[in-house]
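tmp note - ABC transporter ATP-binding protein
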Amino acid sequence: MTTPRITPAVLPAPAAAPEPGAAAPVIRADAVSLVRDGNVLLDSVSLTVRSGEHWALLGANGAGKSTLLGLLGAVNHPTRGSVEVLGRTLGRVDLRELRSLLGHVDPRHPLRSPLSVHEVVLTGLTNSVEPVPRRSVSEEQLDRAERLLKVLGMGGKSGSRWPALSQGERGRTLIARALMPQPRLLLLDEPATGLDLAAREQLLDSLDVLREEHPELATVLVTHHLEELPASTTHALLLRGGRCVATGPADEVLTTDRVSDCFGHPVRISRTDGRWAARAQRVARR
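out:
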């Protein structure tokens, strides 16, 4: 089998000042690199996410997707370059304070207690795994939790206990939890991990509905698989070996040639009813 040669993609020039009426940047990462123990995990990656945009970060295992998401979520500092999140520059702001302004969904949520779905969602107000003792919750916050659960298809599960939930139900509960502080930015780290077909489709449908209900919200979603992208995805960034292969509007980036370059394997990309699919292309055998 032959592996396609990676060719540099023509990337859009860095944006200057936004045009009048353009949404303000929620994230601006400029030529960021991250080196750990002598290993280059990210190499000069740039990304600008504006309000109302929905980005996908794609690449093979080890490409640097979750590492980049960690920078965008104020978990780590870059070795080189700069990262601005919600107008605040990493290195000049309290990371704990900044993280409290973001919605971060990790399917490996470490909860062990048998909290109800409603109680789990309310922990998003304090960004804690367990409820904070003696903290009161307003009627408005209780109503918000219920509204978010309904939007995400969990309205009938409010009283269900965490251990009894399916993986898909947990994922949708965690998205509602992340949205409780009303963040402008939602980060999703492989939210479809471990889901069966039906649960995955329910999750993606819920994300599409959520984005309609909150048009100002910006989202960044990490995945390996194009089939796990909601139809409402607007932009994409392809990573390979810590470097950007292509970035820009989803229809311009998620093409057969560019995705094949990114994964180092010939694939054919199609899109039906707004959803993407990838199929391996036959390679001539000698």
